[in-house]
């Protein structure tokens, strides 16, 4: 008897558990169906924004609730690393997806490609519509980079120059009171410091074929060269360019870290510097917080900044807009997307960002002493100095930038690994000319 | 034993389900049941495999670039000629793919066989050892790549420190132009040998003991027993292991990308066909050429699969 009762009870239990499971499955299906409906239907109140990992993005997220309260809009942020961001755009924009409303993009890297593919909505009327927001306040160089065939396709949010990071303590120990003014001084000082401090490199910078191109560009300009000459021809094997390749590669080969890898982008090179393993480092100034923040840097207290050292042609660092905001042309929510951009690039937000160490695109903010009050003094001076003689690009201005960077970057890694930089520059020049011919067909 | 599998019982079942009283559609469904049951899977395959392959084939015959939605021209086999005559990126990538696959496959089979034989017979604490050996298998390849990147860092990495203790090194490992590919192979062997162990161990435990005992009584040595008894019996399992792992190794992407990044490093040191095709489409936006490389790659995979399976039939 008892056995039979238990059996029935088990059956009931089993049955009810089956019912519960089916209900749960049904509920899950129902919910997911609702989710799908939501994402498609109510685009009007939700702005979908795709942003890169950057201090700028962190600052924006802090201020976001205020924007949502003011406008009643909901902002959905997707935040990705640079490479993942590129891949995401490649897939989604290629498919004509309306999933993205606002996109953070690199005007010099993919701006031309995106504009040519009509991924970026024409913002010309929008930027001119609001006098208070004032499009005229934006610096002309960056504006040029976000304009394609006379149409405004983006609003610059971050600008940067190449600056010399150095270790005050190591310079002092070696008897130097000032950072190097010229590239030759940089070399001799780096050599002396390296010989004095075993395990510490004299100089470090990016070494990866593609990532190094932008930081190499200031060396190239300061030696009097450029990637493309005034006639639109490849110029990477001019005597100036060959000298620049040999100099940059030589600095890293002879005075750089031991067993240097040729894969370093800024995170790896910055890590070597902030671990106290290098005396000098040339890098974008917009990354300075990585070196001065005690949480990220072992040498935060002894980092100094100086303008890019002068070469035979003077000090000519790049001065470029590294990031901008654009609107996806396939978005169904362009009006609200613009509202978001207007707010994110407002004077107030730009000022907040500059205070946090991210230089933006507005002249009025750049001239506001409040903006740079928290910066290291020498960095402010260096930035001001470099704004005068900066070059407006840090890579070849072409459509297929990724491919071009690999071509003009080859002599850099060849020089670093001790190969014949001159011969490599000749080979690169031939390839680059062919690339330019193909692209201008 | 024979009673449970007699034909009459099976035949009886079949005739029962198709008796005259069942309606027409049910009879039709019953007659075509193998198609009916397989159709969801077939639709799935058509949508997710045949369509993409056909589309890739189409793209490979065009000069699509920049955006796949942009207008492109039909260029026939021009891409194939370009790719097959490219000795700078394509053929080196083919060579690297072959070296990588052949190398890791050989190492993994030999090591996997050795470890499987060790773990075959019960011993104390075998559970723990088995779990420990399988750990690399469950780690995500990207995390594995990042971990080994740190270990192999030429200046601060563990690998060179250990070498230093025994008076060797420092070696460039992943940073070296010529050492990068062998280093990534080492990582792959570390990660995927456990899978071979798992498959072979399953095969070994299903073998009956009688042939072994018979060989033992005949006075065969351990090596002779392995070579002439275990190995032939294990052959079908071994072929499966080679096939599965071989195809997977050909397609390796994650470890290479996580350790060396785009283009397989500044000198394309570890650029295999898969990494090359990725670079062509995601970096260069050359969808036509990229599709061509992928189609050729696809043919290589099918070819090698066919080679292995046809050998298996010969052996059987």
From TrEMBL, chain A:
<protein>
    <submittedName>
        <fullName>Carbohydrate ABC transporter substrate-binding protein, CUT1 family</fullName>
    </submittedName>
</protein>
<dbReference type="Pfam" id="PF01547">
    <property type="entry name" value="SBP_bac_1"/>
</dbReference>
<feature type="region of interest" description="Disordered">
    <location>
        <begin position="351"/>
        <end position="371"/>
    </location>
</feature>
<dbReference type="InterPro" id="IPR006059">
    <property type="entry name" value="SBP"/>
</dbReference>
<dbReference type="InterPro" id="IPR050490">
    <property type="entry name" value="Bact_solute-bd_prot1"/>
</dbReference>
From TrEMBL, chain B:
<feature type="transmembrane region" description="Helical">
    <location>
        <begin position="287"/>
        <end position="308"/>
    </location>
</feature>
<dbReference type="GO" id="GO:0055085">
    <property type="term" value="P:transmembrane transport"/>
</dbReference>
<dbReference type="Pfam" id="PF00528">
    <property type="entry name" value="BPD_transp_1"/>
</dbReference>
<feature type="transmembrane region" description="Helical">
    <location>
        <begin position="35"/>
        <end position="58"/>
    </location>
</feature>
<feature type="transmembrane region" description="Helical">
    <location>
        <begin position="93"/>
        <end position="119"/>
    </location>
</feature>
<keyword id="KW-0472">Membrane</keyword>
<feature type="region of interest" description="Disordered">
    <location>
        <begin position="1"/>
        <end position="21"/>
    </location>
</feature>
<feature type="compositionally biased region" description="Low complexity">
    <location>
        <begin position="1"/>
        <end position="18"/>
    </location>
</feature>
<dbReference type="InterPro" id="IPR052730">
    <property type="entry name" value="Sugar_ABC_transporter"/>
</dbReference>
<dbReference type="GO" id="GO:0005886">
    <property type="term" value="C:plasma membrane"/>
</dbReference>
<feature type="transmembrane region" description="Helical">
    <location>
        <begin position="189"/>
        <end position="208"/>
    </location>
</feature>
<keyword id="KW-0812">Transmembrane</keyword>
<feature type="transmembrane region" description="Helical">
    <location>
        <begin position="229"/>
        <end position="247"/>
    </location>
</feature>
<keyword id="KW-0813">Transport</keyword>
<feature type="transmembrane region" description="Helical">
    <location>
        <begin position="131"/>
        <end position="151"/>
    </location>
</feature>
<feature type="domain" description="ABC transmembrane type-1">
    <location>
        <begin position="94"/>
        <end position="308"/>
    </location>
</feature>
<comment type="similarity">
    <text>Belongs to the binding-protein-dependent transport system permease family.</text>
</comment>
<dbReference type="InterPro" id="IPR035906">
    <property type="entry name" value="MetI-like_sf"/>
</dbReference>
<keyword id="KW-1133">Transmembrane helix</keyword>
<dbReference type="InterPro" id="IPR000515">
    <property type="entry name" value="MetI-like"/>
</dbReference>
<protein>
    <submittedName>
        <fullName>Carbohydrate ABC transporter membrane protein 1, CUT1 family</fullName>
    </submittedName>
</protein>
């Amino acid at each position: 008897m008892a056995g039979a009762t238990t059996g029935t009870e088990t059956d009931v239990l089993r049955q009810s558990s089956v019912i519960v499971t089916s209900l749960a499955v049904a509920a899950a299906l129902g919910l997911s169906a609702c989710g799908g409906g939501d994402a498609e239907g109510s685009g009007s109140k939700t702005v979908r924004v795709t942003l890169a990992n950057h201090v700028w993005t962190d600052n924006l997220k802090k201020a976001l609730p205020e924007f949502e309260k003011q406008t009643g809009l909901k902002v959905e942020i997707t935040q990705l690393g640079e490479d993942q961001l590129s891949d995401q755009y490649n897939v989604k924009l290629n498919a004509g997806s309306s999933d993205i409303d606002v996109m953070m993009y690199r005007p010099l890297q993919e701006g031309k490609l995106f504009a040519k593919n009509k991924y970026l909505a024409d913002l010309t009327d929008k930027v001119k519509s609001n006098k208070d927001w004032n499009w005229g306040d934006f610096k002309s160089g960056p504006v040029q980079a976000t304009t394609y065939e006379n149409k405004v396709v983006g609003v610059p949010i971050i600008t940067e120059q190449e600056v010399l990071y150095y270790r005050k303590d190591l310079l002092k120990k070696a008897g130097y009171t000032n950072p190097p003014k010229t590239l030759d001084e940089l070399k001799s000082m780096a050599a002396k410091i390296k010989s004095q401090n075993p395990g510490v490199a004299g100089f470090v910078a990016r070494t990866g074929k593609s990532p190094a191109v932008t930081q190499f560009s200031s060396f190239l300009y300061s030696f009097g060269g450029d990637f493309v000459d005034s006639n639109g021809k490849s110029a990477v094997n001019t005597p100036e360019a060959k000298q620049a390749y040999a100099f940059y590669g030589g600095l890293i080969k002879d005075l750089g870290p031991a067993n240097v890898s040729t894969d370093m982008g800024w995170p790896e090179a910055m890590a070597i510097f902030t671990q106290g393993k290098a005396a000098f480092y040339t890098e974008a100034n917009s990354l300075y917080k990585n070196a001065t923040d005690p949480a990220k840097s072992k040498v935060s207290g002894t980092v100094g900044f100086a303008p890019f050292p002068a070469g035979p042609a003077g000090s000519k660092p790049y001065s470029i807009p590294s990031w901008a905001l654009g609107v996806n042309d396939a978005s169904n929510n362009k009006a609200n997307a613009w509202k978001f951009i207007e707010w994110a690039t407002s004077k107030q937000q730009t000022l907040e960002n500059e205070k946090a160490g991210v230089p933006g695109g507005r002249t009025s903010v750049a001239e506001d002493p409040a903006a740079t009050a928290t910066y290291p003094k020498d960095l402010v001076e260096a930035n001001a100095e470099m704004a005068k003689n900066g070059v407006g690009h840090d890579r070849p201005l072409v459509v297929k930038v990724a491919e071009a960077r690999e071509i003009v970057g080859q002599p850099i890694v060849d020089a670093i690994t001790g190969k014949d930089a001159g011969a490599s520059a000749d080979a690169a020049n031939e390839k680059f000319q062919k690339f330019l011919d193909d692209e201008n067909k | 034993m024979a009673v449970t599998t007699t034909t009459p019982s099976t035949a009886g079942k079949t005739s029962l389900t198709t008796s005259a009283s069942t309606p027409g559609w049910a009879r039709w469904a019953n007659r075509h049941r193998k198609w009916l049951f397989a159709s969801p899977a077939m639709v799935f395959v058509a949508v997710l495999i045949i369509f993409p392959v056909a589309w890739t084939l189409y793209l490979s015959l065009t000069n699509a670039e920049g955006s796949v939605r942009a207008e492109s021209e039909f260029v026939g086999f021009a891409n194939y000629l370009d790719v097959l005559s490219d000795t700078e990126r394509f053929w080196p990538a083919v060579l690297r793919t072959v070296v990588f696959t052949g190398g890791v496959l050989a190492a993994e089979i030999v090591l996997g066989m050795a470890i499987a034989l060790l773990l075959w017979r019960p011993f104390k604490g075998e559970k723990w050892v088995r779990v420990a050996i399988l750990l690399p298998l469950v780690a995500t390849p990207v995390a594995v790549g990042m971990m080994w990147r740190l270990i192999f860092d030429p200046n601060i990495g563990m690998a060179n420190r250990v070498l230093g203790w025994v008076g060797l090194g420092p070696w460039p490992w992943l940073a070296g132009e010529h050492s990068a590919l062998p280093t990534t192979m080492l990582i792959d062997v570390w990660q995927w040998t456990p899978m071979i162990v798992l498959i072979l161990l399953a095969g070994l435990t299903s073998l009956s003991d009688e042939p072994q005992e018979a060989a033992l009584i005949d006075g065969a040595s351990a090596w002779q027993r392995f070579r002439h008894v275990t190995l032939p019996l294990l052959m079908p399992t071994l072929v499966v292991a080679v096939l599965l792992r071989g195809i997977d190794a050909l397609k390796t992407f994650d470890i290479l990308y996580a350790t060396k990044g785009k283009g397989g490093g500044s000198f394309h040191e570890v650029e295999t066909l898969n990494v090359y095709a990725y670079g062509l489409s995601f970096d260069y936006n050359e969808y036509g050429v990229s599709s061509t490389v992928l189609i050729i790659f696809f043919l290589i995979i099918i070819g090698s699969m066919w080679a292995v399976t046809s050998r298996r039939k010969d052996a059987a």
